[in-house]
Amino acid sequence: MTPLTLLKILAAYLVPTxxxxxxxxxxxxxxxxxxxxxxxxxxxxxxxxxxxxxLFYVGLLGIRFxxxxxxxxxxxxxxxxxxxxxRGGSGRILRFSRPRILSRKGxxxxxxxxxxxxxxxxxxxxxxxxxxxxxxxxxxxVSFWNHKAKVYYEQRGIVREAEHPDFFGGPHPYYPNxxxxxxxxxxxxxxxxxxxxxxxxxxxxxxxxxxxxYSGLRRHxxxxxxxxxxxxxxxxxxxxxxxxxxxxxxxxxxxxxxxVVYLYRWIGxxxxxxxxxxxxxxxxxxxxxxxxVPLFWASAVPVMVLRLFTSKLKPGRxxxxxxxxxxxxxxxxxxxxxAKVYYGLQFSLxxxxxxxxxHPGFIGxxxxxxxxxxxxxxxxxxxxxxxxxxxxxxxxxxxxxxLMIILLALAVTLGAFIFTPLFAFLANGMTFNRSMLAILPAxxxxxxxxxxGLAGEAARADAGGRER
Amino acid sequence: xxxxxxxxVFGVEELKLVSPRGLSIPVExxxxxxxxxxxxxxxxxxxxWQGSEGKxxxxxxxxxxxxxxxxxxxxxxxxxxxxxxxxxxxxVGLFFGGRPGWVEIDSLxxxxxxxxxxxxxxxxxxxxxxxxxxxxxxxxxxxxxxxKPFASWLNIIxxxxxxxxxxxxxxxxxxxxxxxxxxxxxxxxxxxIIYDIRETYSQYQMVExxxxxxxxxxxxxxxxxxxxxxxxxxxxxxxxxxxxxxxxFYPYPDWPYDCRIHYxxxxxxxxxxxxxxxIEGDDIPYHVVYRNPGVRHDAASGRLRRGDSxxxxxxxxxxxxxxxxxxxLEDR
Lengths: 468, 332
Description:
heterodimer, A: mainly alpha, B: Jelly Rolls, five-stranded antiparallel sheet, 32% strand
C-alpha cells in the first residue's frame, strides 16, 4: 500500500467525521453543548449517516458513483465549516478539554487507570490487527455487509433492475444499505476494493462507543467511575471480539446507545438539541440494521411520546416536538422504505418467523447464554442486580424513563426469541447473542446510573441527616 | 482407527465404547476415569462401570463436549462412590450422544484421584485457546475451570457478593451505605478484570494463531481457521479467471461456504447449487472445482465429468491447485 493510498483511506474516515463536526457545530448554535471526545465520536457516526444517505439518494437517481459525484457531498460542509471557523474560531468546531480522570487522585486510582487503559489499548490493537490482516471471514460479514458494498463499488452505483443479479447489492437486496454504502465510499476513496480499509470501520466504532459511553456517564458520575464503566463496556468479550470482525451489531449498539443517552438527556434537561441528536442517531441506526426498527418503534418512540404527554406541553408544541423527532429519525430513511414497498422487498423478518409460537423452554438457553457463556463477563448479573436495586430509586426520577426504554428494548428483543420461531437462534446460541449486543450498551448505561444513583441517594441522605 | 497415537472412532448416532472385563479395581480406592479427547461434532458423554455382577452403573455426571475440533479436553469422572458402593470395577464404558461425527481419544485411564494431576489438568483446560470457527462470531465459549465455565464461577461469586452487599446496605446507616455501594462496585470491577485478563490471553492466542496461519504462514500453507487452503485457491482463481468472466462452481459435497468464493471472486460471476449471480444468456466458460473428487477431467474427451455424465464442453485445465481442486476453461 503506497503512502498516497494510506492518505486516501485516512481521508475516507476523516471527511465524514469533519462533516459530522460541522453538522453538530451548526446544531450547537455557538454554544458548546458537547465535549470534544463526545463530539468527535458523534461526528464520525453522523458522518457515516450523511455519506450513506447521500450515496443512496444518488444511487436511486441512477447517478454513477464517480469520485467527483461521491465527494460532492463534502463541499457544502467544507464551506460551512470554514465559515463557522472564521466567524467563531476553530474551537467552535472541535475543542478538547484536559481529561480529568487522574486529577487529584491517589496512587491506587492511578494504578487502576493505567491497568484499564493498558487492557483497552491491547484490545484496540488486537481489533486493528485482525481488521487489517485477515480476510473477511464470518458469514454475514461476507454475504451481507461486504458483498453488498463490493457490488456497489464494482457497479459504481445501485442496480435498480429487479431481474439483475446485482439488484440492490446482490444476494440480500432487502437488507439496509447504510454500512455497505459507507464501505463503498471508503473503496471509492482508496481507488480499489481492499479488505483492510473497509473493515477498519469496526475498531473505529468500538472506540466511538467507548467515547460516547464515557461522555454520557460523565454527566452523572465521576471521571474515574465513567472511565471504569467505559472499560467494562468495551471489554465485554463478545463486543470486543466484534471490534475486529466485520459484523454490524456493534454499530447498532452504538446508535441505540446514542439515541437513548440523548433522549434521556432531553427528558432530564428538556434540551431540544439533545432530542435532535437522539433522533439523528436513531435515524442513522435505522439505516444500519433491521434490528433497529423494532428498537426504535417499540422502545424509543413510546417513551418519547409518553414523556411529551407527561410534560404538560401545549398541544401545538407537543405535536411539533414529536413531529421533529420522527421526521429527523424516519425522514432520511423514507426513500429506502418507499423503495422497499415499490420493489416488493421484504420488511424485517422473513414470513416464516412472523407468527406467534411460545417456547416455554427458553429459560435454560437464556440463562446459559447470560451467565455461563463467555460472551458477557458478569454484565448480566450486574444489570439484573442494578434493576432490582433501583426500582424504588427510579420511580420518582427521570431515570424511570430510561428504565422504561431499556425494559421495552429488552422485551422486544427477548420477546422475538421467546414468542416466535426465532427461538431456534436462542436455542443454538447463535443470532441471539449478537442481538443482545445492540441493547447491552444501553443496559450497562442504566446499570451504572442506577449504582451511582444509589450511592448518591445515600450521600444525600447522609448530608440531610447531618444538617438535621 | 489409530491415527498419530490417538484412537479415532466415528459415530453416526449414539456410540458406545466398553472396556474388556477384568479390570478388577477395588471401589474403595475411589477410582476415577481420566479421559483426554476431542469431538469433531457437539457431543455429550456419559460413563458407566460394572462390577463382577449386577447391572452397569451410570455416573451421574454428563459431559458436554465443546465444539472444538482442534484441542483435546481432559475430564475426570468419578466412577464408584465408596462406601455406599462396594466390590470391584470390572469394566468401564463410555457412551456418546449428540451429533454424528468423529471422536478422538488421546488417553484414557482408570486411576485413583490425584490432586496434583487434577489441578494440572484443570489449569491446562483453563488455558486452552478458544476455537475460532464460523460460529465464534455468535458465541464465545468461556474457559473451563473445575468442570464449570469460568464465567459461571464469577457470576456466582458476583451474585453472592451483591446479595450480601444488599443485606448490609438495607441494614446500614446512611453514611455506611455510600461505602457499601462503592465497595460492591469496586469488587465487581475486580471480578470483571479477573475475567478480562483471561479474555486478554484468549485474544493474544487468537492473534498469534492468525499471525501463524495467515500473516506469516510457512511457505505454501497460507490458511485461516476452518477454511484450510481456501485462500491459496482464491489467489489462483484471481490469477487465472478474468474479472469480467462467469464460472460454474463445484465445491466438495456439503461445503457451506459458497458465499465466500462468491464474495472473494466478485466481479467474476458464479453459478452453483446455492448461489447464482450470472447474467442470463452470457457465456459461462470457466468451471471451478474445489476439493471435489467427484468432478474429473476426462483426458479422452477433454471434458469435465461428474459420475457418468459430462458437465462441460471440451477444454483444458488452466489452473491446477491439486488433484481435486482446479480451474477448467472450455474451448471457444
